[in-house]
Amino acid sequence: MRVRSEWLQVARQNRVAESESAAPGHGMLNVGVSDRGQMNGTSWQLYRKRLVIPS
User: Fold this and answer.
1) pTM of this prediction?
2) One-character DSSP codes across 1-55
């Protein structure tokens, strides 16, 4: 079984066109779990990913 996490930090966006509005920066956490195996000669893989945006 493999467990994976990644953090992505997005900077605030304040260089915008007249018709757009500025956006604050935010962090985003992705968490995933995967496993693979064989059953009765058939290979399988299971993967689950969850996106978490902290407030």
Assistant:
1) 0.56
2) -EEEEEEEEE--B----TTS--B--EEEEEEEEEEEEEETTEEEEEEEEEEE---
